[in-house]
Amino acid sequence: MRKTSLLCLSLIAVSLAAVQPARADDSTIVMKNFDFAPMTLTAKAGTTVTWKNLDEEPHTVVSTDGLFRSGALDENDRFVFRFDKPGVYRFVCSIHPKMMGTITIK
After folding, report:
1. Does the global pTM surpass 0.85?
2. Which among 36, 38, 80, 83 could disulfide-bond with 105, CB atoms 3.0 to 4.6 Å apart, if both were Cys?
3. Cα–Cα distance between 41 and 106 in angstroms, integer?
């Protein structure tokens, strides 16, 4: 009887762990081939977004509403920003303005 109880408790613990939502507080956008990928991202308030430059050329990440601005990011450099409030946030590379993206925070 005791082995059965322990097995049941183990199965319940595994089941509960499986239904726990993944932490939606970390998302990555890469800069590659003079584009942001993904170009659009939807996440919950409190999400931390990381931009990583995978190009050999420098890029920046600049919010069109002035909320955030990175310096020039060389290859493999990162910029991180936490989005605490719901809204739609547009960003560009100030060096290559054709590079644009949008983050929607719910």
Report:
1. no
2. 83
3. 11
